[in-house]
Amino acid sequence: MILIDTHAHLYLEEFREDISAVLDRADKAGVDRIYLPAIDSSEHLPMLELEAKFPDKCLAMMGLHPCYVKENYLDELQLVKDWLAKRPFAAVGEIGLDFYWDRTFEEQQYIAFREQIALARQYELPIVIHSRNSTQECIELVKEAQDGRLSGVFHCFSGSYELAKEVVKAGFYLGIGGVLTYKNAGLPAVLEKLGLDHLVLETDAPYLTPVPFRGKRNESSYLSYVVAKLAEIFSVSPEEVAEITTSNARKLFKSTFP
Ligand code: NI
């Protein structure tokens, strides 16, 4: 079984002590590749160091996370631009809107999102979207920019069936992780109607740990619990879930599969 973790922050402090063991366990669980979403410049170096240390396993993205759009966001955007001009990245991410924590910089979040979508188009890269309490708004921005060439994923999708259909119609994938295993999540019913063809797997490690480890640190090897849940929802084997979602992830990150 070959799995791809399309979203994990394995460069964060939570993993500094035992990253080699974390990656070994990922290997044993069949996780072949792990895509690292950027947050802001304070984490660029740890992210790029992790990628340099494990180049076959860890692939970096570049972008400014909406929760880190603050007073200095124009400086941060400039750094994102500089990095994208300097070397290839797997995607522009994670970018988007977050209206859950704080709306102080709502206007700036929109500006940063639009600018980074433009960068993705310029470099022909997919975008990895963070859309907490803002899925509809993010879909609108994607539709506005969609010229048939924009692609990407709604990371940690947890919306309604109607929103899921809109995401697929916009040509995007849905990132599915530990939330799927949570008791009050309405997600299984939504996905059951939608099918497997537009789903990719993700952990968002160290966050959003699947049951039975909910509350503990998440890591890429726990992807197998998400696979098991999807297999149950669709009444297929875990191998089939792996095959389809890995094939989707390869299409999503096609520039990293020469
Ligand atoms: Ni994330």
Outline of this structure?
With 258 residues, the chain is α/β, with parallel strands linked by helices. It has a single domain, classed as TIM Barrel (Alpha-Beta Barrel). The chain is built from nine helices and eight strands.
List the helices and strands and how they pair.
Elements: E1 3-5, H1 19-28, E2 31-36, H2 44-53, E3 58-60, H3 73-86, E4 92-98, H4 106-123, E5 127-132, H5 135-145, E6 152-154, H6 161-169, E7 173-176, H7 187-194, E8 199-201, H8 223-234, H9 238-252
Parallel strand pairs: 1-2, 2-3, 4-5, 5-6, 6-7, 7-8
Helix pairs in contact: 3-4, 8-9
Bound molecules: nickel (II) ion (NI).
Nickel (II) ion (NI) is lined by residues 7, 9, 37, 94, 204.
Question: What integer value in Å does the Rg equal?
Answer: 17 Å
Instruction: Tell me what portion of residues adopts beta-strand conformation.
Output: 5-15%
Task: Flag low-confidence runs.
Answer: none
Helix-strand pattern: EHEHEHEHEHEHEHEHH
Structure annotation, total helices: 9
* Sheet with most strands: 5 strands, parallel
Shape verdict: globular
- The CATH topology comes to TIM Barrel
Placed side by side, the strands forming the largest sheet appear as: 4-5-6-7-8
What percent of the residues sit in helical stretches (DSSP H or I)? 40-55%
Small molecules in complex: nickel (II) ion
Mean pLDDT, to the nearest integer, reads 97
Number of domains: 1
CATH classification, class level: Alpha Beta
Intertermini distance: 21 Å
Tell me the name of the CATH homologous superfamily.
Metal-dependent hydrolases
Task: Find the count of extended strands (DSSP E, 2+ residues).
Answer: 8
CATH architectural grouping: Alpha-Beta Barrel
- The secondary structure category is alpha/beta
